[in-house]
C-alpha cells in the first residue's frame, strides 16, 4: 500500500510540476520576446511619459498594445494594479523538490545511489544532495554579485562551474541521479534568482516610484542579469526533465560529457530565438546546435555485437532475467518500493521477454538496468543478453 500511495503522490506532484513549469517557461519566453521586440514609441507624448518601447500584437482575435517603462511613468503616480510573475516560478521549484523527495530521497537506494560509483547510505546520499543544491546556489550567487556588467566573462565562468559540478556529481551518484541534480541545481538557481533578486528589486523600484523618489536602477540591472541567465538555463533544464526516459544519454560511459554537449546545443538554439526577436536571424546558431546533437548521435552509436560465436540459449537468458530483473519487472514486484513493474515492463514469461527484447538488450548493455545494479548483474551476463539479442532473440532453444 505504501508503494502504491507513493506512486499516486509521484503522479500528482509530477502533474503539478509540469503545469507550473509550462506557466513559468511560457511567461518567461513571452517576456523575453516582448523585451527584444520593442520599438521606440511613435507618439512624442508617450516618450515624454517615460515609455521606453512598445509593441503592437495580435492574438486570439484581439489586438494588444504593450508599453515598457524603465522606471515607471514620469509625472504621474503609479497607482495601477501590477501583475507579478512569481508564483509560476515558486510553484515549479516547490513541486520539483517534491519530486526530488519522492523519487530520489525516499527511493535513494534505487535511484540515487550506485555502489559501483560510490558506496553511500541513503542518509549520506540525501545529505550530499541537499548540501550540493545549497552550495551550488551560494557559489553562483557570489559569482553574479561580484561580476555585474561582465556578462560575457560571467557566462563563461558559470558554464565551466556547471560542467565541473556535472562531472563531480557523476563521481558521487548514479548517472540518472547525477543528471537530475544538475537540473535541480539550475532550477534552484532560476527560482532563487526570482525570489532573492528579481521580485525584491522590482518591489523596491515600485516603492521608490510611488514615494516620488529618484529610482535606483541597480535592482533593475541585477534583475535583468538574473533573468537573462534564467532564459539560457531553460532548454538544458527541460532536457534534463525528460532525460530519465532516455538512458542512452546518462548511462553512457561519458554521460557527464554527453549532458554538457546537449546543454551547449540548447543554449545555442535558445540564443537563435532571442536574437530573432530583435530582428537578427543567425541560422548558424541552430545549425551549430543541431551539429552538436548529430555528432553525439554518431559518436554514441552502439558498437556491433559479435554474434558469430557460440549460440546463447534462451534458457541462459531467462535464468539471468529471473535472477536479476524479475524482482522488479513482474506483475507483483517483490523488490521493496515498487508497487508495479517500472514502465509496465514485465519479464516473467517467454512472450514478455520477446516483447521487450529490444529495450532489455539496450538498457542492460548500457549499464542502466538494473537500477544501481542492485541485483548484482555481472558484465558476462550483460554480454550474454547482448549476444542473444544479436543472434535473433529466439525464445525457443
TrEMBL record:
Transmembrane helix recorded as keyword = yes
The Urate oxidase N-terminal domain covers 3-301
Spell out the InterPro entries in the cross-references: Cyt_c-like_dom_sf, Urate_ox_N
Q: What is the lineage of its organism?
A: Bacteria, Pseudomonadati, Pseudomonadota, Betaproteobacteria, Rhodocyclales
UniProt name for this protein: Urate hydroxylase PuuD
The portions of this protein that span the membrane are: 12-33, 93-113, 119-140, 152-173, 179-199, 228-247, 253-269, 281-301
Per the record, a Pfam family? Urate_ox_N
Keywords from the named record? Membrane, Transmembrane, Transmembrane helix
Amino acid at each position: 500500500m505504501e508503494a502504491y500511495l507513493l506512486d499516486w503522490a509521484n503522479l500528482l506532484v509530477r502533474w503539478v510540476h509540469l503545469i507550473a513549469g509550462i506557466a513559468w517557461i511560457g511567461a518567461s519566453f513571452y517576456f523575453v520576446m516582448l523585451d527584444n521586440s520593442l520599438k521606440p514609441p511613435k507618439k512624442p507624448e508617450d516618450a515624454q511619459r517615460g515609455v521606453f518601447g512598445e509593441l503592437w500584437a495580435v492574438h486570439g482575435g484581439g489586438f494588444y498594445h504593450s508599453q515598457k517603462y524603465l522606471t515607471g511613468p514620469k509625472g504621474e503616480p503609479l497607482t495601477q494594479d501590477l501583475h507579478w510573475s512569481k508564483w509560476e516560478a515558486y510553484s515549479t521549484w516547490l513541486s520539483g523538490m517534491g519530486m526530488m523527495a519522492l523519487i530520489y530521497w525516499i527511493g535513494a537506494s534505487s535511484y540515487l545511489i550506485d555502489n559501483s560509483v560510490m558506496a553511500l547510505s541513503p542518509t549520506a546520499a540525501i545529505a550530499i544532495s541537499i548540501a550540493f543544491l545549497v552550495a551550488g546556489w551560494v557559489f553562483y550567487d557570489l559569482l553574479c554579485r561580484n561580476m555585474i556588467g561582465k556578462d560575457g566573462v560571467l557566462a563563461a565562468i558559470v558554464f565551466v562551474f556547471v560542467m565541473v559540478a556535472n562531472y563531480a556529481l557523476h563521481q558521487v551518484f548514479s548517472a540518472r541521479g547525477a543528471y537530475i541534480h544538475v537540473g535541480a541545481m539550475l532550477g534552484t538557481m532560476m527560482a532563487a534568482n526570482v525570489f532573492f533578486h528579481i521580485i525584491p528589486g522590482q518591489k523596491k523600484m515600485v516603492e521608490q516610484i510611488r514615494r516620488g523618489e529618484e529610482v535606483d536602477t541597480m535592482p533593475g540591472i541585477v534583475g535583468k542579469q538574473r533573468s537573462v541567465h534564467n532564459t539560457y538555463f531553460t532548454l538544458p533544464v527541460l532536457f534534463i526533465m525528460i532525460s530519465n526516459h532516455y538512458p542512452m544519454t546518462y548511462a553512457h560511459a561519458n554521460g557527464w560529457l554527453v549532458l554538457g554537449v546537449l546543454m551547449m546545443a540548447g543554449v545555442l538554439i535558445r540564443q537563435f530565438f532571442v536574437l530573432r526577436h530583435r530582428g537578427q536571424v543567425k541560422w548558424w546558431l541552430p545549425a551549430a546546435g543541431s551539429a552538436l546533437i548529430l555528432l553525439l548521435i554518431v559518436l554514441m552509436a552502439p558498437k556491433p555485437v559479435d554474434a558469430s560465436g557460440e549460440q546463447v540459449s534462451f534458457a541462459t537468458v531467462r535464468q539471468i532475467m529471473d535472477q536479476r530483473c524479475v524482482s522488479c519487472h513482474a506483475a507483483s514486484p517483490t523488490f521493496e518500493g515498487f508497487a508495479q513493474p517500472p514502465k509496465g515492463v514485465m519479464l516473467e514469461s517467454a512472450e514478455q521477454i520477446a516483447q521487450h527484447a529490444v529495450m532489455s538488450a539496450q538498457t542492460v548493455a548500457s549499464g542502466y538496468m538494473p537500477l544501481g545494479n542492485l541485483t548484482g548483474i555481472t558484465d558476462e551476463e550483460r554480454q550474454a543478453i547482448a549476444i542473444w539479442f544479436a543472434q535473433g532473440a529466439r525464445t525457443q532453444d
